Amino acid sequence: MKKSQASMEYIIIAAFAIMVVFGVLSFFYSRSQESIADLQSQQINKIGPEIVDAADDVYRSGEPSRRTITLTFPEGITSLYTTDNKEMVFCFTNGGDVVFISKSPLVLNLASTDVRKGQHKFLLQAQNNCTCLTTPEGGCPSCGTYTQTSCP
Q1: What is the DSSP secondary-structure string of 90-109?
Q2: Which residues fall within 8 angstroms of residue 118, CB to CB, at 6 or more apart?
Q3: CB 110 within 8 A of CB 123
Q4: How far is it, in rounded angstroms, from Cα 113 to Cα 123?
Q5: Which of 147, 150, 104 is nearest to 127 (CA)?
Q6: 3-state SS assignment for residue 128
Q7: Starting at the edge strand that comes first in sequence, how are the strands of the sheet with 118-126 ordered?
Q8: What is the pLDDT of residues 36-77, one digit of tens each?
Q9: How far is CA 90 from CA 10, 44, 81, 123, in A?
Q10: CA-to-CA distance for 110 and 140, rounded, in angstroms?
């Protein structure tokens, strides 16, 4: 009877240790996911005003002003668009979005691949009555009002 009792106690201790280890691992995993989300939010809150401020500077300088900016996008952005040429909206894979307001009319000519994770160069170009944000290889559409009403 002693051997079976010792074996059972050993199994119970091992099971308890495994539960503690899994509990600690899940706690640290959830904390790391929160940290990643916070970091992404901080990066977006840096990128958004940088784009808007640069666009306002280029617009105030007038045509044919141009400016190239380099931005590092975090993971999780699905698209970037403007509404009424004033509100710049970042859309995320989790369904959320973040809006930045431009003081000057802003038109975007970007594909979803232009806002994928990593470092990208963009061209801000003053036009007759707006500023266009595009890739250095891309062109700028006319400054008519294009409105996308929601994230895809």
Answers
A1: EEETTS-EEEEE-SS-EEEE
A2: 72, 73
A3: no
A4: 16
A5: 104
A6: coil
A7: 66-73, 118-126, 131-134, 106-109
A8: 777 788 888 899 999 999 999 999 988 888 899 999 888 888
A9: 54, 8, 7, 18
A10: 10
Asked if pLDDT for residue 81 goes beyond 80, the answer is yes
CA 109 – CA 115 distance, rounded (Å): 11
- Measured in whole angstroms, the distance separating CA 92 from the mean position of its chain's CA atoms is 6
Question: CA nearest 74: which of 43, 50, 32?
Answer: 43
| CB crowding 71-100: b at 16 or more within 10 Å, else e | bebbebbbbbbbeebbebbbbbeeeebeeb
Between the two ends of the chain, the Cα-to-Cα distance in Å is 67
Mean predicted confidence (pLDDT) in 115-127: 88
Backbone angles phi, psi at 100, to 5 degrees: -125, 140
Amino acid at 49: P
Question: Which residues, in sequence order, are bridge partners of residue 2?
Answer: none
Contact, 104 vs 114, CB < 8 A?
Answer: no
